[in-house]
Amino acid sequence: MVAAPGKKPGRRPGPSDTKPAILAAARELFADKGYDGASIRAIARAAEVDPALVHHFFGNKEGLFVAAMEFPFDPTVMIPQVLTGGPREEIGERLVRAFLGIWSQDEIRARAMAVVRSAATSDQGAEIFREFLTSAMLARVSEVLELPRLRILVAIGQMVGVVVLRYVLEIEPIASAGDEELVELLAPTLQRYLGGV
User: Fold this and answer.
1) Residue 68: how many CB atoms within 10 A of its CB?
2) Are 81 and 58 in contact (CB under 8 A)?
3) Cβ distance 106 to 98 under 8 Å?
């Protein structure tokens, strides 16, 4: 089948509404089918675009999920930077700095809280978020670090607890402690979990 002159196959007639249409279809299918059950092909079909266009805009399903769920930061970018951004002996420090850096920004913190609340107050939101973290993030980290998932989850749990105490509950003295002080306290513990020893 030959496309009409001037018309690209797989693209909607109005290019300005293509990306929002993909995001809308993705939100609907992620909500209906979960992270694992929603495929790029199904999302493209629902948005009436070629799957290649979804890849063009979002790279892969992880990137599409991050955009559709309006994550305040992209864990698919941040996590590889933490894992491979320097020596293995410094991974604990990189993780602490990454967490604190993200949560210390007012706008990002507000949006991150919205994502956390959605997962905490909605069974469906929690299930989708859990699938994404397990399928897309935890599996990748475990493979790269060659560590059991339990060690990775314990390290992440440590940082989530710090974030809750510091930014959500604002309990002193952790709420006003300097970043460097927290890095000094937390990095050795996370390194023990993630350093592979």
Assistant:
1) 22
2) no
3) no
Q: What stretches of the chain show up as alpha helix (H) in DSSP?
A: 18-37, 40-47, 51-58, 61-68, 75-84, 91-103, 106-121, 123-132, 139-145, 149-163, 179-194
Close Cβ partners of 39 (under 8 Å, ≥ 6 residues apart): 61
Amino acid at 131: E
Fold of 15-68: Arc Repressor Mutant, subunit A (1.10.10)
Six token digits for residue 65? 């999920």
The CATH code of domain 75-194 reads 1.10.357.10
Structure tokens at 66: 């991050």
Read off the pLDDT of residues 71-101 as tens digits, 9 standing for 90 and up.
777 777 788 888 888 899 999 999 999 889 8
CATH 1.10.10.60 domain range(s) in the chain: 15-68
Task: Tell which wins on pLDDT, 196 or 72.
Answer: 72
